[in-house]
Amino acid sequence: MLTMSLNLSLILFAIASTGTPGPNNLMILASGLNHGVRRSLPHLLGICTGVPIMILAVGFGLDQLFQQWPILFTILKVAGISYLLFLAWKIATTQVRQGPQTNNPPMTYVQAAAFQWVNPKAWVMVLSAVASFTVAEISLTPQILTIALTFLPIGLCCVGCWLVAGESLRRLLHDARKQRLFNVTMASLLVLSIAPMMAV
């Protein structure tokens, strides 16, 4: 198991990683506004279980593939950035009806969970967590499980706050013009969030 100091550091790292702006949080914020909390729950659960699944995969050997073939990480990064640009375009062009619902359906659980595998921020977060919060002197399995199980509830709380905030914005953005402006703003921020990932 991790030491007390490592556990505290891991918790703070998970809060900072899952609570700060990034592709997941910007998209779930937009989903909360456009679809509401209830319809966006599969999207939320896909994010919050997809990351721990990645942690398990990386912790139990997937990172060795990237060490052997660095081109794989480059391919994933290019695919992820391309998909983020596509999602930004979808958010910006969402057809807003008068009222909370839109013509575009919210992300499904599978789509949100699968998106983590092409999300550059998720890869940086997962690889950093596994590298920073495991020690060679202790069995790897309980350490990886601890990291994954730490990210699950913290992700639900932090990303969930963004979802609730999105639905709360409905009261301020009650007409279609304001919702369209919000969607374009979120899409622009999503594109801007790609810039730091280009350097990874």
Describe this structure in words.
This protein is mostly helical. It has one domain. 78% of the residues lie in helices and 0% in strands. The protein has helices spanning 4-19, 23-68, 70-92, 109-115, 120-132, 140-168, 176-192, 195-198.
Helix and strand run = HHHHHHHH
Distance between the termini: 30 Å
Taken together, the total number of domains comes to 1
Total number of β-strand segments?
Answer: 0
What is the secondary structure topology, with strand pairs?
Layout: H1 4-19, H2 23-68, H3 70-92, H4 109-115, H5 120-132, H6 140-168, H7 176-192, H8 195-198
InterPro entries: LeuE-type (IPR001123)
Keywords: Cell membrane, Membrane, Transmembrane, Transmembrane helix
Transmembrane segments: 43-62, 69-89, 144-169, 181-199
Sum this structure up briefly:
By secondary structure, the protein is an all-alpha fold. It has helices at 4-19, 23-68, 70-92, 109-115, 120-132, 140-168, 176-192, 195-198. It starts with a helix and ends with a helix.
Characteristic terms for this protein:
200 residues, mainly alpha, 78% helix, globular, transmembrane helix, cell membrane
